[in-house]
Design goal:
about 60 residues, mainly alpha, about 50% helix, about 0% strand
């Protein structure tokens, strides 16, 4: 008889990247803000992929 046994998840949490909009000065022009926001979307999507991979590593059957 097989009995599931809980196993500690030992997946390393990916480091959160520095977000471009966090480094902007107050009152920055719209062009610079837009470029930073677009770059941040790309970074966040990549970070989300890394987080999902870590999560899947924890919840997949052993």
């Amino acid at each position: 008889m097989k009995v599931p046994v809980p196993v500690e998840c030992r997946v390393e949490v990916p480091a959160r990247p520095a977000m471009p909009t966090e480094a902007l000065s107050p009152g920055v022009d719209l062009d610079r803000f837009s470029a930073s926001a677009l770059a941040e979307i790309e970074l966040r999507e990549g970070y989300e992929v890394e987080l999902r991979a870590a999560l899947l590593g924890c919840i997949k059957p052993v």
